[in-house]
């Protein structure tokens, strides 16, 4: 590992690990063991709770059906494995295309942790009964090593998000067994999916939106740090003491990464179109997945797959499924679920402002700067593909202090007056001999109505 990486760990990760330890509740039974390094026999290898007899399995797990039925796969680390002489590995919590997630225990800090192991499906294999080392397939060595370096690189970026309480914190990361590991804090709680099921398949919008709102800012911070999560779903949103936490960054990727080399990772119903195509991913990718998670919690139904919506969009609006939201909120969710990346909000802030504050979003073609429809793939004015667009809000009308005076002259030439045009407008206005008083006082009644109507037209959306 590089010196810079070690410095990051000493400055950020170690500090956060100590903070987690200080904030973690201490069991009475564990007080006597904190003065020394805990032995791995002191923790149950299945649930990581304390055991009194040093057997490695607590009484609760010994009589638990889940423990008796649990079978560790050949490529999983065996129960009781100790990594880096510090981290005890327990049962598998989940497994995806990039790695395996275990429950664990930090034997030095004496607390539960989550351990993510780099194990890319299709590139690697392991027979744990013979060796704990992960082997890459012949011909996939370069891809395996590049993936491992990215895996650790993402851990370094995540380590910088220590002050973002809605995002699971990184405690440590290291290489071992020809693989790589990320140690994160363990979240006690239930998933948003489980909570939706417990509430009868739907969560009331008032309760849901209040719980989700801090996550918009958290995801915005993640995107500003150069990461996209790429696997947001109700399964990866945990509720801990009433607060929502984002977990499992195993699918996260650097925004600046070459899109052609990004690995195909998706969860049907929550994955946008660009994840099926392996290109064009960005913050808008997480916008789609987060909106799909909201859709599920409001309706109890997983959205139609994005690839099945290309030719004919059969996505049922939430209010038709009896979601208790306003028309504006429904419009915001549907816009965030746009099939093409250019059809939806480009940032979490845009999504938040529309959903919570009712900000009316206007889309402008980045080529000709004229206003376009909410879901237009081609500009109606210049005919160019809408590969990107500029977002304006209803507050932009404040940028036009003299719009009424100038609107009649420009209305026949341009269909829309945008802030980009204002320097030229102001220059012409300063040269013109215009009255100081509002034009309504110097024109006839019919002309005043015409001017007012055209002014209103410049702030309305093009149909």
Rg over CA atoms, rounded to whole Å, is 27 Å
Number of strands: 16
Distance between the termini: 56 Å
Q: Judging from the principal axes of the Cα atoms, what is the shape? A: globular
Query: By helix and strand content, what is the structural category?
Result: alpha+beta
> Can you tell me the residue ranges where pLDDT is under 50 for at least 5 consecutive residues?
21-36, 258-263, 392-417, 432-463
| Helical stretch tally | 13
Write down the secondary-structure element order: HHHEEEEEEHEEEHHEEEEHHHHEEEHHH
Strand content: 15-25%
Description:
The chain is of the alpha+beta class and 463 residues long. It has 13 helices and 16 strands. A 6-stranded antiparallel beta sheet has the order 1-2-3-4-8-7. It has a 3-stranded antiparallel beta sheet with strand order 9-11-12. A 3-stranded antiparallel beta sheet has the order 15-14-16, with no helix packed on it. Helix 9 (327-336) packs antiparallel against helix 10 (348-357) and helix 11 (403-410) crosses helix 13 (445-458). The radius of gyration is 27 Å and the shape is globular.
């Amino acid at each position: 590992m590089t010196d810079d990486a070690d410095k990051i760990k000493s400055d950020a990760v170690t500090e956060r690990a100590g903070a987690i330890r200080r904030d973690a509740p201490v069991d009475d039974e564990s007080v006597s063991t904190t003065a020394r390094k805990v032995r791995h026999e002191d923790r149950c290898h299945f649930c990581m709770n304390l055991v009194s007899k040093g057997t490695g399995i607590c009484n609760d797990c010994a009589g638990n059906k889940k423990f008796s039925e649990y079978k560790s796969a050949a490529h999983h680390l065996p129960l009781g494995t100790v990594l880096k002489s510090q981290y005890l590995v327990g049962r598998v919590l989940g497994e995806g295309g990039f790695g395996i997630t275990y429950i664990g225990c930090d034997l030095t800090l004496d607390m539960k942790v989550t351990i993510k192991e780099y194990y890319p499906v299709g590139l690697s294999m392991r027979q744990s009964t013979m060796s704990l080392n992960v082997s890459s397939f012949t011909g996939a060595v370069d891809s395996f090593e590049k993936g491992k370096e990215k895996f650790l690189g993402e851990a370094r970026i995540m380590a910088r998000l220590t002050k973002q309480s809605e995002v699971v914190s990184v405690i440590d990361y290291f290489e071992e067994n020809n693989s790589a590991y990320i140690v994160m804090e363990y979240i006690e709680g239930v998933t948003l999916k489980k909570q939706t099921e417990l509430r009868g398949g739907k969560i009331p919008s008032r309760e849901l939106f209040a719980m989700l709102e801090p996550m918009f800012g958290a995801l915005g911070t993640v995107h500003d740090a150069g990461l996209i999560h790429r696997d947001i779903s109700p399964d990866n949103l945990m509720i801990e003491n009433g607060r929502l936490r984002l977990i499992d960054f195993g699918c996260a990727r650097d925004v600046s990464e070459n899109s052609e080399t990004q690995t195909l990772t998706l969860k049907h119903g929550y994955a946008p179109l660009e994840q099926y195509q392996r290109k064009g991913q960005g913050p808008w990718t997480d916008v789609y997945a987060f909106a799909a998670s909201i859709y599920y919690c409001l309706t109890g139904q997983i959205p139609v797959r994005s690839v099945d919506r290309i030719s004919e969009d059969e996505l049922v609006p939430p209010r038709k499924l009896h979601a208790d939201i306003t028309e504006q909120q429904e419009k915001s969710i549907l816009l965030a679920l746009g099939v093409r990346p250019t059809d939806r909000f480009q940032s979490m802030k845009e999504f938040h402002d529309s959903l919570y504050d009712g900000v009316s979003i206007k889309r402008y073609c980045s080529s000709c700067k004229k206003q376009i429809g909410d879901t237009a793939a081609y500009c109606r004015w210049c005919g160019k593909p809408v590969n990107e667009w500029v977002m304006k809000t209803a507050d932009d009308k404040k940028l036009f202090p003299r719009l009424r005076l100038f609107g009649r002259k420009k209305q026949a030439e341009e269909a829309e007056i945008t802030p980009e045009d204002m320097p030229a407008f102001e220059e012409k206005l300063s040269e013109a001999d215009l009255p100081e008083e509002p034009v309504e006082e110097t024109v006839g009644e019919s002309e005043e109505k015409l001017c007012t109507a055209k002014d209103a037209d410049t702030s309305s959306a093009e149909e």
